[in-house]
Design goal:
Distance between the termini: 101 Å
Structural class: alpha/beta
Oligomer: single chain
Helix content: 25-40%
Largest sheet: 8 strands, mixed
Number of helices: 22
Shape: globular
Number of strands: 31
Length: 719
């Protein structure tokens, strides 16, 4: 026996102990029933068990039995608090609670049985007439079980107060201990995956764990439309206006779409829950368990790794002082956008390091903002022109000129050698010997895939491409899939590769989700990517687009319809991967009418294509406009023989370098490997991606690329 000093302490300890004893029994408080099941939920991988709701009679009986039980319990609690927690009172209270916890369900069950028996007897008993009293008793008729009587008002009130399941969410853990579908990462790939999972398994319960403090959102607007909004309050809510003026949020779904993680197991129709601000540190493939950074374990049936990537830094800034690091943004997510947005409103100068998609988009966006302020924007990169690793040299240089027109200073073939901090400024020493003083630096030089899970989880990493190595079905090991930027996948057409674009995250996430529900589909769909340098210049691409490959380009004069703004106005969609689908429904019939070969069967098309001689003869006799291969001179072909020679030269190797005066309004660029089209860029040419995808998918050699270019109907909108 022991004594506890202090009435308050004794009362708390006694109440806690009594609560522990009663965690597995019903307790009645007022008009509602609860089950305190925190112990159970922490010990079972499937969370607290559901109980079948009782009938209204049993609710009344249990409530009646519970009232007297509750009164007695409260008397013992009061005695413990009043007398300072005497050990005897504490011991007897626990003993009595254990005994009554066994008796209470029995009493309730007995009450229900008694009520049913009385109802049956009432129906069975009938008055016997005097004339038949002396007659021999006839066999009693079969008594049918009476139908359950309708509850009265008070009973109905009690019944309505009983939930369909009885968890006490206040004492349950915030993170469930089991998830049938566990998605690691909260980006676009996870979003596409849980949509595919729910499409195949309507009642699926999906748990998403993300390091960010955000619900799943789209990244493209962070470097595009958000910067062109004239409504600051709209941007604060992470909403933007598409090029057509339509308002939209960067978040895929509103908060009301998701359920609380601890309530996920009780959603009879399934749902999606998001655990924010947590990182999965390790997977145990044998036990099928994920370990979080706080030590919590989540058992899973199927798991998707969609951890994406982190912005790549450069050694100069990694070695710099803390003052310099504090003024460097590695642009990637919402947090980075908010920071750069605030900096750009107060800084006098910003330097963007990187000439790829992201760097060029941010430079154009900041350049546009500099027009209305004293902000100076400088972009630098080691290539000869913007997006020099993707576009042919002549088109890259033309793009650089367009970026300069947006108000930025562009420094090609330039990189930072040293960085230091002085007088509140970051001083950059360049390879050219020049020194630049700036308030802030933005680094946009690509991504490093997040593969920290690999070492601790026994997963393979691709040393050449980076990312988790997976098969054509995006599976790394049994019941483990990888999608998005972190996936090094085997493309059954183009071989092993890794892609860092929005549409690939959508396509691979969707495929992984389908395979997690048993589809077993290989990766065959060629994802596309796009980039907009403001509302007037943009391009779409598919396949392998590498400026080191031979290219053949065909251009035409652009119209007002050949801009990113125009395509969004027509389709109502700014995400170009979705625009492709919209194009088939909106423009499909018009495109087929204008050009019957659009979205063609290329095998049939190849058989019907004219020979080079026939094509040249037709072009010399027809007066209608037709796509022309750009040449280094504007002089017309002197004769048929010269024209045929020109076409042959273009097909053999794209050594065509049009003059700087050329205006590349719109066009198509083919990227070749072993004379096979492996990539296509559509320059200011929209709603034609299904054609490009079909060409890349077939992987055939084409006799005349100028004729293939006609499939894109470059002159469709010309007057």
């Amino acid at each position: 026996m022991f004594r506890i000093a202090g009435s308050v302490t004794a009362a708390r300890l006694t109440a806690a102990c009594c609560r522990t004893v009663t965690t597995k029994q019903f307790q009645v408080h007022g008009a509602s029933l609860h089950v305190l099941s925190s112990d159970t939920s922490r010990k079972t991988r499937h969370g607290p068990a559901h109980r079948t709701p009782p009938s209204w009679q049993s609710v009344r009986s249990m409530a009646s039995a519970g009232e007297s039980q509750s009164k007695i319990n409260y008397i013992f609690f009061g005695l413990a608090a009043l007398f300072g927690g005497g050990g005897i009172v504490y011991w007897w209270s626990r003993k009595y609670m254990r005994e009554t916890s066994k008796d209470t369900p029995k009493k309730a069950a007995a009450a229900v049985s008694s009520a049913s028996k009385e109802a049956a007897e009432t129906v069975a008993e009938k008055p016997v007439p005097e004339t038949t009293k002396s007659a021999p008793a006839a066999p009693p008729p079969a008594v049918e079980t009476p139908a359950e009587a309708a509850p009265d008002a008070e009973s109905k009130k009690l019944l309505d107060a009983v939930p369909q399941s009885y968890p006490d969410f206040e004492v349950m853990p915030e993170i469930p201990g089991h998830a049938k579908y566990l998605l690691i990462g909260g980006g676009t790939a996870s979003f596409a995956a849980f949509r595919a999972i729910r499409a195949s398994d309507a009642k699926a319960q999906v748990l998403v764990v993300t390091e960010e403090e955000e619900l799943p959102y789209m990244r493209p607007p962070l470097s595009k439309e958000l910067w062109y909004s004239d409504e600051p309050k709209l941007v604060e809510k992470m909403k933007f206006k598409q090029w057509n003026g339509k308002e939209r949020s960067v978040y895929y779904n509103p908060p009301s779409f998701y359920v609380e993680p601890k309530e996920l197991a009780y959603q009879e129709n399934g749902g999606v829950a998001v655990v924010k601000g947590r990182k999965v540190m390790k997977l145990n493939p044998q036990k099928q368990v994920a370990v979080l950074d706080n030590g919590w374990e989540i058992f899973y049936d199927k798991v998707l790794i969609a951890t994406g990537g982190r912005p790549r830094n450069i050694p100069v800034f990694e070695r710099a002082s803390q003052e310099v690091k504090d003024r460097v943004t590695l642009f990637r997510g919402i947090k980075d956008f908010k920071r750069l947005d605030e900096v750009s409103k107060n800084a006098s100068s910003i330097v963007v390091v990187g000439g790829g998609f992201l760097g060029s988009e941010l430079t154009c966006a900041l350049g546009k903002r500099s027009r209305d302020s004293s902000l100076k924007v400088i972009q630098m990169f080691p290539e000869q022109g913007n997006m020099g690793k993707v576009l042919p040299e002549y088109l890259s240089q033309w793009t650089t000129a367009k970026v300069r027109e947006e108000g930025a200073t562009v420094k090609p073939e330039t990189f930072v050698k040293r960085a230091r901090f002085s007088d509140g400024k970051v001083i950059l020493k360049l390879n050219t010997g020049e020194e630049i003083s700036t308030d802030h630096v933005v680094v946009a030089v690509g991504l490093e895939p997040n593969t920290e899970l690999a070492k601790e989880s026994g997963l393979e990493v691709d040393d050449m491409h980076g990312g988790f190595r997976v098969n054509a079905e995006l599976e790394a090991r049994s019941d483990i899939w990888v999608a998005g930027d972190a996936s090094s996948f085997y493309d059954i057409k183009l071989g092993r590769r890794r892609v860092e674009h929005h549409d690939h995250a959508v396509v691979s996430g969707r495929l992984a989700g389908e395979n997690m529900t048993g589809a077993k589909k290989p990766y065959w769909h060629q994802s596309m990517f796009w980039s907009d340098l403001g509302p007037d210049v943009g391009y779409e691409a598919i396949g392998i687009v590498d400026s080191s490959l031979p290219t053949v380009a065909v251009f035409a004069k652009a119209t007002e319809k050949d801009t990113p703004r125009a395509v969004v106005e027509e389709t109502g969609e700014s995400l170009r991967s979705v625009t492709e689908t919209e194009a088939l429904s909106i423009f499909g019939s018009a495109m087929q009418q204008a050009a019957p070969a659009t979205v063609p069967d290329l095998e049939v098309m190849e058989a019907t294509l004219p020979t080079k001689e026939e094509a040249v003869a037709a072009e010399s006799s027809e007066t209608t406009a037709a796509p022309e291969v750009e040449s280094a001179t504007d002089e017309p072909a002197p004769d048929v023989e010269a024209a045929a020679k020109l076409v042959a030269e273009v097909e053999a190797e794209n050594r065509v370098a049009p003059t700087p005066k050329e205006d590349y309004g719109k066009g198509v660029i083919f990227y070749l490997r072993d004379d096979i089209i492996v990539g296509v860029v559509l320059w200011n040419l929209f709603n034609r991606m299904p054609i490009a995808r079909k060409i890349v998918k077939e992987g055939k050699q084409h006799q005349d690329l100028a004729e293939v270019a006609k499939l894109f109907d470059l002159h469709a909108d010309e007057d």
